[in-house]
Amino acid sequence: MNSAPPAVRAAGLTVTRGARTVLQGLDFTVPRGQVTGLLGPSGCGKSTLLRALVGAQAKVAGRLDVLGHPAGHPVLRSRVGYVTQAPSVYTDLTVSQNLDYFATVLAPGAARADRRSTVRRVLAEVDLTAHADHLVSRLSGGQRSRASLAVALLGTPELLVLDEPTVGLDPVLRRELWHLFHRLAADHGTTLLVSSHVMDEAERCERLLLMRDGRLLADDTPDALRASTRTATVEDAFLHLVDQAADHQEATR
Amino acid sequence: MTAQRTLATARRVLRQLGHDPRTIALMLGVPLVLLTLLYWAFHATPQTFDHIGPALLGVFPLIVMFLVTSIATLRERTSGTLERLLSMPLRKAELILGYALAFGLLAIVQAALATGLAVGLLHLSLAGPTWLLLLVAVLDALLGTALGLFVSAFAASEFQAVQFMPAVIFPQLLLCGLFVPRGAMPTALSYVSDALPMSYVVDAMTHVSLDASANADLLRDLAVIAGSALLVLALGSATLRRRTP
Questions:
Q1: Which run of H or E residues covers position B46?
Q2: CB distance from B80 to chain A under 8 Å?
Q3: Is this complex scored with an ipTM above 0.90?
Q4: Does residue B241 sit at the A interface (CB-CB below 8 Å)?
């Protein structure tokens, strides 16, 4: 193991939104160069956790370090790529105009030819080359999410934070994207943290964070999780852990 | 801070408008139609047109840029693109200056067309130099951009954003001296008028139309307009938060 700090280290991470405590004292680490899945039902706090990681969330207490710096530190802005759940691209621009703008924001000094080739690369990675000159408002929902994903791939970030990037996509395309995620981890050593509420996507991750109601149920590999809960799928393991937590609560009441 | 990011932002804003030719046509065309209507309505008393015309050349860019900026930045906030930009190495000043540059350029085109029509075809008498009138118009547009950016922080929807137009612009329009000379207002209202930036817009435009020289009064008006624009831009920049609840 090298001595570089983990991609993410959280200790006692708590987030409040209004009167509600959305994340309740989370402790976990995300290792570098792997695909880690953040899984849990809708509304369990996944998006809030990811927003805290990229420094977009207010009222974050406890410790949260990203690539060895406190989350939201200015040096992280060019090293962390972030894709929000709703596609965040300009609908009144074409796909390549969007990419051209964000590429300039990320690397203002780059030569125009370099920027063009970066844009061509990410268009190919998300399979939107044929739609490069279409207005985003004319694209389908899945194409819009891929345009939004393409923006995050522009700067070849060290950590990619993806909030439900594969929801609503065609299965073939979903498989392609998961291949892309693993290729990024294997070829560039990129760390990926991918959230999903679809449990079958867990099998595609090297590590899992299982969440429910603002708490972590597990932080393990899919194999270890199935073994320790003596279940066949991650979904069953999740249910087992939920029941176990409920029993534990009963017992201590 | 880099000029490239500011320029790229300005180009992006103009490209967005470029895909929306109807909005451009409305922004540039409506002031011309209104000026022509005004000229026609006061055909019997051209001195009234000479009085109101220059003031409107200052008020149009302010209102149009206010509307366009408040909607554009509201969309930026609600679509998630602002959150994305602020998670990238983009400074708030680069974003705001990019917007100001794009809308400032549009304001120059708009003011040039409106002034050309008013002076060339509608025989508006203009004592001062045309470039001075354009300068005032651009400052007015920047003030409108600043106000629009600021109020967009307080609007949760486009419905609310358009309602800020009567709330923020109409009181200024009523008290800027266009309808009642500022000296003839009740004392309390004249103080309010002194505190509203559009009053200085109208004063500056009236000055340029009546007086060929740029004297201290005009410089003071210009300084007040530019100062208010900068103040409101700074307030607007404070509403662009990297961390939101």
A1: helix B46-78
A2: yes
A3: no
A4: yes
